[in-house]
Design a protein that fits this description.
The structure is a homodimer of 122-residue chains. The first copy, chain A, is α+β, with helices and mostly antiparallel strands and 122 residues long. In chain A, 54% of the residues lie in helices and 12% in strands. Chain A has a 3-stranded antiparallel sheet with strand order 1-3-2. In chain A, strand 2 and strand 3 form a beta hairpin. Chain A binds a DNA duplex (30 and 30 nucleotides) through helix 4.
DNA sequence: CCTCTCTTTCGACAAACATCGTACAACCGT
DNA sequence: ACGGTTGTACGATGTTTGTCGAAAGAGAGG
């Protein structure tokens, strides 16, 4: 029995995706990086993301994103490929993901903010 | 010394507002209800929101929203008035709040979803 | 001054969360 | 069959979070 049958990889249906879960999934720097990376490249294996956490931690983040309906995971041999569920998300929440990621990238590229925010320890 | 001087009520500046904090602030049903209510009515006192939590819990949620830069709190006599910082948020993240709240209300008014989600205990 | 209302602060508590190391399972080369 | 690669599962840990009740502050109105 192949791995693709053994593990289940539960994905919520489009109509089951909960906005609050999506927001929570995106409200984490590591997961936001995953989503941003996935928006630039259509499909990527788990280990190829520019994040700096332990493998097991990364697995956790991928599960959060998948169970929130943000990404889709597909197995192929030894690798697990991740794609953004952009069509599904856009069908349920038109323009939302784009608005959020755009806002994040706008913030990241804003001059002066990161300096200020780093100075004030919040 | 009046109460308005005694308590500080720290609000982040527009440039200090962090998107991830905003997302986290909105990823809670109680706080989302507060924001939705505030979007319909310009200003409202703390105790007048249609939420079902203890007063101290509500205070906590208002602080989260305020420190994330989502709402502004102003004291007047015995009451604390809350407003949405829509202009500030739109200046920093154009269209974001509207996209999120619209998505939430779309979800809430979608037929069949809440039934399904309530049946499956998540 | 006294009381009532609105809201906060504090302390507590259980649940959820992000993180890691270790162990393991599946697949792919050779 | 063996070793390397990729990723998961599990258990542990410290932190954050949502929740509440009790106590108290500050103003309004008698």
């Amino acid at each position: 029995m192949a791995r693709s049958q053994r593990r289940v990889l539960t994905h919520p249906e489009v109509g089951e995706v909960d906005l609050l879960d999506v927001l929570h999934a995106l409200a984490d720097p590591t997961r936001m990086t995953v989503v941003r990376t996935l928006r630039a490249e259509p499909e990527r294996a788990c280990g190829t993301f520019p994040v700096d956490v332990a493998p097991s931690t990364l697995t956790h983040h991928f599960r959060v994103l998948r169970e929130a309906g943000v990404i889709r995971q597909r197995e192929d041999g030894n690798l697990r490929w991740n794609t953004l569920r952009l069509d599904d998300l856009d069908a349920r929440f038109p323009g939302l993901l784009d608005a959020i990621v755009t806002a994040y990238e706008r913030q990241e590229s804003a001059p002066g903010r990161s300096v200020e925010a780093a100075a004030q320890p919040h």
